[in-house]
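Field log, afternoon session.

UNIT: design team B
ACTIVITY: writing a sequence onto a fixed backbone
BACKBONE:
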């Protein structure tokens, strides 16, 4: 009698394929979920929850994302320095004008695990406000299946 064995993926077996995503006109949440899926590796058959099996992702035109509803004025990013009076808040519209790459990074980071594995995954995300990026040598594949 033979038994079936479950295959456990090793980190050396993971193949990484660079992806490039054009964020021009894309909705922030839909774009972020797709990017988080690629970074985690959930699109692969060899996905393993405790390993980083994902692909590096390059996002271009991050300054041209769009949001629905009244989020530009109503969504507020809050942080505190730890000192008295150190509460700082900024609307999505202000952050998008100042640092559009940070909006996409924070959105994707919120969809990744909150541990060392999540930190490892977010390091494979490269975001640029304009259409140019310095990762041509990695020959990234264009990702076009994200809904607008």
């Amino acid at each position: 009698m033979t038994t079936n064995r479950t295959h456990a993926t090793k980190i050396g077996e993971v193949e990484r394929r660079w992806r490039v995503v054009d964020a021009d006109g894309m909705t922030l949440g839909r774009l972020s979920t797709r990017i988080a899926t690629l970074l985690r590796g959930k699109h692969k058959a060899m996905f393993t929850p405790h390993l980083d099996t994902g692909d590096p992702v390059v996002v271009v035109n991050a300054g041209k994302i769009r949001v629905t509803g009244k989020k530009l004025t109503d969504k507020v990013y809050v942080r505190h320095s730890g000192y008295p009076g150190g509460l700082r808040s900024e609307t999505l519209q202000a952050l998008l004008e100042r640092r559009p790459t940070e909006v996409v990074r924070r959105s994707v980071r919120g969809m990744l695990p909150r541990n060392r594995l999540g930190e490892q995954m977010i390091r494979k995300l490269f975001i640029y406000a304009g259409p140019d990026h310095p990762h041509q040598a990695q020959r990234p594949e264009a990702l076009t299946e994200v809904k607008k």
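LOG NOTE: The first strand starts at residue 19 and ends at 22.
NEXT ACTIVITY: expression trials, pending approval
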